[in-house]
Amino acid sequence: MELAYIPSPSHGVLYLGPIPLRGYAFCIIIGVFVAVWLGNKRWIARGGRAGTVADIAVWAVPFGLVGGRLYHVITDYELYFSEGRDWVDAFKVWQGGLGIWGAIALGAVGAWIGARRRGVPLPAYADAVAPGIAFAQAIGRWGNWFNQELYGRETHVPWALHITSSEGGRVPGYYHPTFLYESLWCVGVALLVMWADRRFRLGHGRAFALYVAAYCVGRGWIEYMRVDDAHHILGLRLNDWTALVVFLLAVTYIVVSAKKRPGREVVVEPGAATDACGGAADGTGTGAEAEDDRTGTEEPAAAQSGDKTGDRTGDTARDRTGGKAAVKDRDGAGDEAAAEAEPDTAAAKDEAESAKKG
Length: 358
Hints:
By secondary structure, the protein is mainly alpha-helical. It is 68% helix and 6% strand.
């Protein structure tokens, strides 16, 4: 008797009237929204425009879904085209079956088309969305939990996954929850890329390459634990070989790119910096308009300064003129006083002479 385990949902789909609401689809949709939201924040921080990530995602996401399904159908063709199978099931994406290798490869083609239409470099865009893609994978893996698929070997650990369905050759029991292992690994990959990007200022696609390399390391050991049917080459599952090859390519790209194009892109979206300058100046205008506003502000200030200088000069002149007038006034008053004093002095002299004669 198991004391602790991870229960599986009894149903992977709920019906809202005639409309089916599938847990697998919800996980993918939520993952896409998280990737676009985080990618948009990182793109703006790098100097790009808001909305560019979403515009390019309109191309990347459909291409990625088609690529992921194609990879799954091609590598597991016997599930759809062997005797007793219905090939129409190859189009039933909601039943599970998206290969991340095909999703990234064809999704990159869609992103390239969208990036060219927006006039932005694809490597810079890939660096911005890399952590978001890892988070999207972490969320999307819970779709496998809803479908009771992609589990590992039998186990009795406390976090074992309890499989209850017997459809499609499943054997009810307790298994390693490899979907959970990969989900947690993807969260760690996203955090690693964000830290390394801030610490080393990764550019020219190196943050995306780091995401790819780190994911491949985890996918290698998780894939080794899975027990679902898969093609084997030299004793290893096909996805193990794919992870090994892609890991080597990603590491090689990081090394070569760092030597040829060190540092980070200065401009990731032409014109975005000009818009930012205009928004900082008046909230709506362009950088040129902001410059005009600043120039127009300086000219009246200079004129006002000139007026003040002229006023001060005029005041000084008036002060000097007034001073001279005051001096003249004082001199004039002195002359009048002297004039008034002269008759009194003459009278005094006459009286003195009369006194002597008498």
